[in-house]
Structure formats: C-alpha cells, structure tokens
C-alpha cells in the first residue's frame, strides 16, 4: 500500500514538472506576430500566457536571423529574465509601448550552471514587451534605446 502511495506522489510530481516546463506545448499553439525594428522584419511566436512565458525559447536549439519570441504583458512592469533551459545565446530587447528602452547583448545560455546560480537580467524600466532574437542581431542592426518598434499581431 505504501509503495502505491509513493508511486502516486512520484507520478504527480512528474506531471506537474512536465506541465510547468511546457514541453507538451506544440509550437502551433503560439500566436504569431510580425515585428519591424531597425528596418528588419522578424516573424515571432507570441508568448502571452504564463505557461508560454515560463517556457520561452527553452529547449530550442536554433533561431533564424529573422525569427524570435515576443513576450506580451498586460501592463508595463519591471521584469527579470533568465536563461532557464536555454541552449542558444540570444539578444534580449526590452520594449515599452513601441520603443526600445534597453538591450541585453549576447546573453549566454549558461548551460552547465545550476538554476540557482543563473544570472538574472532585469529590465531597465517598466516594459510591456520583451523580444528575444538571435545573438548578435541587435548590434548588427543598430538596435538601441530609443529605436522605434512596430508590432502587427496576426
């Protein structure tokens, strides 16, 4: 009887972990948007639910030069991002309304760093969007504080 109870606890813990990681969430479940910043058009997945935002780009092993992920928040708030489950380096672009308010360049995935030691990247001010793109693209395109952003949701 005790072993069935323990097995049930283990199975429940696994299901909760699996659900929170979002591994079950197919890419097709993400809405799409097109973002234009510094003359470059990016086709992005939109992460606007807590589960999608928790997963982010975690587990992705490649990101094309014109792809990314847009995190959408209901209202401008200070945000902190980290590289949980990330396999690739990225640039993080902090956006308030339709303007870049900060950029984190070439953020390392910290693959062999334990979760509690992973670096946190705080927004420079309150933001309602965060754009993650391939590492080095922000510098190559001249994206910086004050750059205008156009977002078209599909």
TrEMBL record:
Pfam families hit by this protein: DUF192 (PF02643)
Entry protein name: DUF192 domain-containing protein
